[in-house]
Amino acid sequence: MSVSDPPDIIPVPKPRSRYLLGVGVPQRSSSERNGQLPRPDVTVDTQTKSEVETDIRYEVSVDDSSRQLRSISAPPDPQHVKTSCSETPPWPDSLSNSSSSSPDAAGAADSVFSDDCPVTPDLLSNDHHNSSNDSFTDEVMDVQTEICTNGEIHQVPKSKDLQNKPDRPKKPRAATIRVSRKKQTLSGPRQKADVSHSECAVTQSSWLDVWKGRKHNVLWATLDGHVMSMWKKRTDKFTEYMFHVTSITNIREQDQGRFSIYLQKKHFEFMAHSEAVRERWLTSLYATRGRELITAPKQHGPLIMKDPRKKVYTAIHGYSLWIYSSKEDFNAGLGMMCVSMNIASVKATGRHSFSLITPYRTFNFSADSAKEMAAWLVSLNEVIRSALSYSEVAHRLWSSPFNKVCADCGAANPEWASVNLLVVICEACAGAHRSMGSNRSKVRGLKLDNKVWTEPLIQLFVLYGNKAASSVWAHNIPPTEQIGPDVSPDQRLEFILAKYRKGLYCKAHPLAANQKLLDQRLREVVCGANVEETLSLLCSGARVSCSATDPELHSAIIEAESAGQALQTELLRHNEFVESPEFEQTRHSEEQIEELHGKLDEERFLFSQENESAACDVLDLTEVISVSDCSAGQTHEFEVLSLTDRLICRADGRDALLSHMLHIMKIVLAGAGVTEDLLGVCAVSRASIREGAALQCAEVWCTLQDGEMSIHTKHGSTDTLTLDSQTRCHLQRSENCILLEFPDRTLHMQFELENSCLRWHELVQRALRSTTDGPLRSGSVPCSIDRCISHITQYGLKVEGLYRRCGVAPQVSKMVDALSVSPRGTLLETDELSIVDISGALKQILRQSFELIPNAHKPLWLKAAVLSDEKQRLQMYRNLLKQLPPDSRVTLAALCGHLHTVQMHSQKNRMTAHNLAVIFVVTLFQDLAMNAALVQLTKELILRHTEIFMNHVEKDREIITVL
Questions:
Q1: How much is the pTM?
Q2: How many other β-carbons are positioned within 10 Å of the β-carbon of residue 944?
Q3: How confident is the model over 870-887, as pLDDT tens digits?
Q4: In the predicted model, what is the mean pLDDT of the chain?
Q5: d(Cα 481, Cα 478) in Å, to the nearest integer?
Q6: Which run of H or E residues covers position 109?
Q7: Phi, psi angles (nearest 5°) of residue 377
Q8: Which H helix or E strand runs over 621?
Q9: How far apart are CA 570 and CA 561, in angstroms?
């Protein structure tokens, strides 16, 4: 059947006798009476005889307040609502709650939203249902049916409660920010994928707004001709919902990009971002009719799934385990997800529990009895054995779940491997690897080439294999460019060439720009057990043998053998005479600029072409690598970078911009353990940090705010650096690197994208200028105090009892004298006792040599501290800060910022904000230090440092600008 042919009829269940308000129901044709329904051709002729009489219309609007059914003053005359027998009545676009809020009305609303309403050809409901009720008709008010003289059927409501009908599911809310997306579209695999994709009528994929009952979400929907699946993210391995096309009982078309799919007592409503996308979906769905029914399950029954703990219903269909929310969903054919058994293994974990292990997730189940669990284990193992056919080598390599899927396309049970690239691949990808030549990829079979599979090589693949190789070779693959098992040979070859020959998706080693350092680092690493870094070095071009350039140097293989590293030696031998990737990092692409509307939704950024339309694309915020404020004057903008997109986001006001930035930064930094205290941060970026002449680097997140840069590691530690007049910043553009020179250390910051590097360099330079010639920095922190704060921040944040311990008095006095003479030349040690002495010296300098708050100002601070209203109290603090001398104001800000950083590490140093306030209240207020209100004030200055001091600086900036 061609795409243009009219679709055949599809089966539907028999109709029931009750219907909704005010919709004419046509007489059914013989085919309809037999349980079949032609493809809907929606046309409605609604006639109005008099202005006084009721006109039944349905209005559509994104604004919830406009979603209402026009009031019905009297039952309509049957002659005024006509629907021809050949027409299918339309699904009303929107209904709303009546102003009545009685409990009865609320109960009626809940019943109308039953998701178990049986689907019939004549049921024209736009209500959403939940699974708590068994029958829609048991709860809906009675409807009187009148037969017109012309044979048409018309329903007249018998109850006024019909006016309390609930709302339709809400459309997407209006977007809150404008987005310019500069997207790099590769001219390679992706474009060809789109061409082949359009040639197949029964396959389809796009972002859709999805409603199931009252629940709304934006999901990535796919249809492969047999199963329709819905995913929260494009990169997810398991679905939110899925069902076989033979479970579909009806398909409804509506306007404005909407359509509905029915599965017995369940149904979904969808909205595409355009009519064209909707038509493609409908064409594909109609083309799937006539498919064979899904096979009966070999075993099915209820189980309890942990993480999250809930009762589910499971069934084995073919070589997959389908997981359903309930038995009712099982009967309707609506699954949550399915697990392919040919990439899974199962084992008992308790008396009644067992685990199903896949490369992507481990599922933990428990049965009601040991007998039932044993039955499941027997059935699952039988399915797994029947799905697998393996040799001993394949069996051992597949013991790692990551090796049970192809490293390139994700096909199950790959039987080939590239021994130098350390990837297990399928037969189709193995052919593409061979085309690159053995000087790039050495392809060996798991079942054929037994001689090559030595015990160290097998161990290398079992312990590392696809898991380690993917972190190196597939570090930067955009989701839109990742191929699947069913791609064409041309697409597969182009993707593999881009991945391994051009190195488009590789994670380059930080030393990749310096061949000498790269080779030196390889000889050092192979003496240890860090195989992943060795693979990264080889991928970046490190040479196994340097005899051609320096005969006196030992090769990396000799170094590994001398250190007894068998796995390292095996990997090096297979990479001794191969070529490294060309690192074609500059992609041949054309830049597309499109204006979109964006809205934040938890960990996602939803985009729509119109402010009130359905989502056309989604960005996973966990893929963001950089966020920076690029506002200028009255323009409020910030930039968001991922590996594939560059977004310029514009807000109407400063508050809207900051709220969006804060939301994104919290998601981005969650992996680094930083989700709070982000007020005042103007930039966040992922980078690789290398200190001094060290060869090792660490992947970190960096944040930049007024005069400070913080480095957050994956382990949760934070290092805060002060950007002052003695800091130097140099741009190394060819390496996407920034060199930061501090008085006592040097940092190399390498960024993944050139845009990230350039933006960060610009912001750091701006911060440095503000510390030297900016109008707000009229004061300065004394060098002795600045040196102590910087040293303690760098080396003493984890010292237990910091500032509570007094230190050795002679050493403290000696250090104070030395700092007063030569603050930059004084040698400061980094051991724990020296850090305690330095903290004592800082307190002594502040008390004896510097007055942060003049005596005349202290009563005013005390008056502010006793204010009960928090907002008024904080504003008073800001006003009092303006009255301080410039040096005092800047020094107080630096001290409180430092103490704020100290209390963030209180789990290790035991110095909470309260402990610090008790210690430093004496430094700030001396004679008044015993006042409890001033202790609380000091605590607020520490905890609310960003809010108090940074807001003060911005207000100063505004005043100066006005003047």
A1: 0.57
A2: 18
A3: 888 988 998 898 888 888
A4: 75
A5: 5
A6: helix 103-112
A7: -65, -40
A8: none
A9: 10
